[in-house]
Known about the structure:
The protein has helices at about 80-90, 105-115, 145-155, 170-180, 220-235, 245-255, 265-270, 275-285; strands at about 5-10, 10-15, 15-20, 40-45, 60-65, 65-70, 95-100, 120-125, 160-165, 185-190, 195, 200, 205, 210-215, 240, 260-265. By secondary structure, it is of the alpha/beta class. The protein has a single domain, classed as Alpha-Beta Barrel (TIM Barrel). The strands form four sheets. Strands 3-16-15-10-9-8-7-4 form an eight-stranded parallel beta sheet. A four-stranded antiparallel beta sheet has the order 5-6-14-11, with no helix packed on it. Strand 5 and strand 6 form a beta hairpin. The two termini are about 30 Å apart.
Amino acid sequence: xxxxxxxxxxxxxxxxxxxxxxxxxxxxxxxxxxxxxxxxxxxxxxxxxxxxxxxxxxxxxxxxxxxxxxxxxxxxxxxxxxxxxxxxxxxxxxxxxxxxxxxxxxxxxxxxxxxxxxxxxxxxxxxxxxxxxxxxxxxxxxxxxxxxxxxxxxxxxxxxxxxxxxxxxxxxxxxxxxxxxxxxxxxxxxxxxxxxxxxxxxxxxxxxxxxxxxxxxxxxxxxxxxxxxxxxxxxxxxxxxxxxxxxxxxxxxxxxxxxxxxxxxxxxxxxxxxxxxxxxxxxxxxxxxxxxxxxxxxxxx
Length: 301
């Protein structure tokens, strides 16, 4: 029996595969296709302290080898999450990671505090949200703001925290070091790349927000590079994501330095995608006689 278990900040996952926030809801839709217990963890859609309506429509556009989205982190808020979504996820033998979003540091801390006594394993802090108090620049694009929000959320969180890094920066390692300095337990990357699509027939923007987050297979080489750079720069475990569609994609991230991986946009094209990625990793280990998944982590230097 080959060992696929990995550990993130003291939390053991049965395998390194999880879902990427915003692509899996809270799992209810996908549970109709397969048993969510086969996954190492389920990462929820962003949860805010109050309901968020999201951006105006249209807010999704397909691109070659990917998609753009400007959903705007629409979510029903922490109260609905605790009443409806968390009890649902507790039915499954998988770790629960809650993605937290906010517009101010206080917003994030409020959600972390509400979750501190709940049966949640890790918190993923989405620092790609615009910082309202600082004129709209994302928390994750300013190293000082990133270090500060990490340190503040740590004061309220009972669970280990994952800082989800934005790729829309000049130097990803500067951001990784800032999160580490602030006390982050784990890093996840990459979040979406900022992109734009223009409808040439209507001669206007394809999505109402003008720009959106680009994800899917087209971003994978950028994501692998950033995971590799980050793994060389910090000592924290990394969750790698960005264009993972199969087990081979996942292994690439693991060899680059990721302890775990998240499957995102692929879930939209194939509801079984995350399950297939987990099976694909096992098939790779079988093919190359790898006894323990940890033998692969960061093997390419």
